[in-house]
Design a protein that fits this description.
This protein is mainly beta and about 700 residues long. Helices cover about 5% and strands about 35% of the residues. Among the domains are: about 10-100, Roll (Pnp Oxidase, Chain A); about 240-300, no CATH class; about 385-470, OB fold (Dihydrolipoamide Acetyltransferase, E2P); about 590-685, Tumour Suppressor Smad4 (Sandwich). The longest helix is centred in the middle third of the chain and has 16 residues, at about 280-295.
């Protein structure tokens, strides 16, 4: 279908860095969710101009058609010197004009955003790039550089809520690529509007909210003069009808992050799966699946046409008619719009010339979602980073996560804003697993789950010039150790340590506790020492057997020594050496010297009631000796001039070879008393029995 309908058009330069520039050709390419690009050709009589007179300068022009104006505004990105018209003495140029947003492509960055929404991030980037839009050159005819910042962003068409993101990484991406990736991921599109002084970025997330234009576009008609199109074609194509999005989050390990979305009207069941979906909650997974199906479906029905109307706008609904093919009125919105105006000079001198406008329009009933131009960048290898945090030693949350600063992160300080809390891989994790928290300042190795920069995991730590191996190497290469450091201690030797020495002939295991060592055994604790065991206690030692007995076995002897006193127990006997020996138990009763063989006694009377001289203890224990003499016991005989006497009183509870022990002042059978006892071995009446029993005869 071809139409020769002519519309009067012309171009006015409203703002231009060179006053005598004459435009000859214009091509304007506009697309949803892409920066527009204007190609302007023209000439000037000045030959003394250089690129600095054009580059990074604002330009505004107005395209009019039958009194209906359309304004473009932008910034000159490049200038090409084409040729010099010798006859007319004119220098011809080609200029490329783009929005200020396009210059974000020149600014590449790697950084981490925390607790900011996607809209907050875009606003921040816009303001950061505004700082570079300053006057770069001085010149008589140079206009100032454009002023464009976040104030030029229009957000009124956003209907969704965008929560703050805990962790969002821009990795080795230009600001423009990063913003495009975020907008696509969250289903946000954009287009531009213009006035004579500036251009404006309009964000939207529901194309169904576009304004409806009053213009109705007639693609074909029975009358060629009424048709507004040179050519038009409507295409309907198959598209993915079902999307399954899946992911996993350790914070929601009990949930399956799976969402399946199916388009309402489908011809064929075409299914695709998205993993990972780069989501951490079920709600996010559902939204990403919905956006993917919208992205696939919105292109399924489209109109491609060439029109002769140049004042069409992106971000509006238009009613399309086709009388020839008997197609009913349908609402479409423009996805791309290309305007070509040739020989502007003739148009401006009132010569009729055709304006070519090519469009791609999408079905208004299908919600728009921008194409994913840039995928999430991948970090396929490992990286190192430095642990950061509050304080001097350890900063960890309740999930055993720490913060790090990557070497590519742009901040100049090592603080908690460098990264969010990230996972630390353990040899075994969980309540019965392993826990090792990297310390602030340590260098750690980081890998990225699914190569996603937004999912770092610490997998180990490394030595560096500040954290060197604690032992001299390679001299101590046979040592394997696990060593900690006491928090906030300035002494590097403070901490716990478990060390294994594997040098042949010097094999050993070293265990050090900086303060307390607590061992809990639920059932049985057994030590087996092949050669020697030595225990040194600098303070006190207490052994308590709460239930049962305490048994100590030795093959040759048991020796206990305190100062000059010694207790020795061997297979040959029991030897107690001390300056003073006192046997006393609870009750704190006065001590009595234990009687020995040879100790004297007093015998006042016998049956004839006459006093008799008492003599020594005649016999004692064969096995228990005190001060070189056998210990005396109850019923042991005593010498008496008349007849033999015997000990008749004893220390209750102190048993020597099966008999209670005798003691100084003990009563005798004749009514006398033992008058002598050991000067340094004493005993009070015990509250519990003490049985001195030798293992063998002396």
């Amino acid at each position: 279908m071809e139409s020769k309908t002519i519309q009067k058009s012309f171009v006015d330069l409203l703002q231009f860095p060179v006053p005598d520039f004459t435009a000859t050709h214009l091509t304007a390419l506009e697309s949803l969710s892409l920066p527009y690009e204007l190609t302007l050709k023209g000439y000037t009589s000045r030959r003394d101009l250089s690129a600095k007179n054009y580059l990074h300068r604002s330009l505004a022009l107005q395209l009019q058609q039958n009194g209906a104006p359309k304004i473009f505004h932008g910034v000159i990105d490049s200038v090409t010197s084409l040729h010099f018209d010798v006859l007319n003495k004119k220098q011809h140029y080609q200029l490329i004009i783009k929005p200020a947003m396009a210059f974000w492509a020149y600014r590449k960055n790697s950084r981490i955003f925390q607790q900011q929404s996607v809209i907050d991030i875009i606003t921040l980037i816009a303001d950061e790039n505004a700082s570079v839009d300053v006057a770069m050159y001085d010149g008589k005819h140079c206009s100032t550089a454009p002023s464009w910042s976040a104030t030029n962003i229009r957000k009124e068409a956003l209907v969704e809520h965008y929560p703050a993101l805990a962790y969002c990484v821009q990795y080795n991406e230009s600001d423009l690529d990063f913003v495009h990736r975020l907008l696509s991921q969250y289903g946000i599109g954009y287009y531009f509007s213009f006035d004579q002084k500036n251009h404006y970025l309009h964000l939207f997330d529901d194309s169904r909210q576009f304004l409806k234009s009053a213009d109705n576009l007639l693609l074909s008609s029975q009358s060629a003069k009424q048709s507004q199109a040179y050519s038009a074609e409507t295409t309907e194509s198959l598209a993915v009808s079902t999307v399954i999005a899946r992911d996993y989050s350790a914070a929601l390990s009990h949930l399956s992050l799976r969402s399946q979305v199916t388009a309402g009207q489908t011809i064929a069941n075409l299914q695709t799966m998205l993993y990972p979906s780069h989501t951490s909650t079920l709600q996010e997974t559902q939204k990403i699946a919905q956006r993917v199906i919208q992205r696939e479906q919105c292109q399924a029905k489209r109109i491609i046409a060439q029109l002769n109307r140049c004042h069409l706008l992106l971000g509006q609904h238009y009613a399309f008619y086709d009388e020839v093919d008997s197609i009913d009125s349908n609402s479409f919105y423009l996805a791309t719009l290309e305007t070509k105006v040739d020989d502007i000079e003739k148009l401006n001198t009132d010569t009729h010339q055709r304006v070519d406008v090519s469009i791609t329009a999408l079905d208004s009933n299908r919600r728009y979602c921008p194409v994913a131009i840039h995928a999430v960048p991948k970090i396929t290898g490992h990286q190192t980073a430095t642990v950061v945090g509050v304080g001097d030693s350890i900063d960890v949350n309740d999930k055993a996560q720490v913060k790090v600063k990557f070497h590519w992160e742009q901040s100049t300080v090592n603080d908690t804003l460098c990264s969010a809390y990230i996972d630390v891989a353990q040899p075994a994790a969980g309540e019965y697993g392993w826990q090792m928290i990297p310390r602030i300042g340590q260098e750690v190795m980081v890998f990225f789950e699914e190569a996603d920069p937004n999912r770092p995991i610490i997998c180990g730590s490394l030595h560096n010039d500040l954290h060197r191996p604690n032992d001299s190497l390679p001299e101590n290469h046979t040592k394997t150790y696990f060593r900690t450091h006491t928090q906030e201690s300035s002494n590097t030797n403070d901490g716990h340590e478990l060390c294994f020495e594997d040098a042949l002939g010097s094999e050993s295991v070293y265990l050090k506790s900086q303060k307390d060592l607590n061992i809990t055994v639920a059932n049985r604790f057994q030590n087996s020492v092949t050669q020697k065991r030595h225990v040194t206690v600098a303070g006190q030692q207490t052994t308590a057997v709460c239930h049962g007995a305490l048994t100590i076995n030795a093959a040759t002897e048991i020796v206990m020594q305190v100062g000059g006193s010694q207790l020795k127990l061997s297979g040959a006997g029991f030897v107690l050496n001390s300056a003073t020996i006192q046997l006393q138990t609870v009750g704190n009763q006065p001590g009595k010297g234990i009687a020995r063989q040879g100790d004297s006694h007093h015998c006042p009377t016998i049956t004839d009631q006459q006093p008799h001289n008492g003599g020594p203890v005649l016999k004692g224990s064969n096995l228990v000796w005190i001060n070189g003499q056998p210990a005396a016991r109850k019923d042991d005989p005593l010498h008496c001039d008349a007849s033999q006497d015997k000990i008749n009183q004893n220390i209750a509870g102190l048993i020597i070879d099966g008999q209670p022990a005798g003691y100084e002042t003990a009563k005798t059978e004749h009514g006398g008393t033992v008058t002598q006892g050991s000067p340094n071995v004493f005993s009070a009446a015990p509250t519990t029995a003490i049985d001195w029993l030798a293992f063998s005869e002396r």
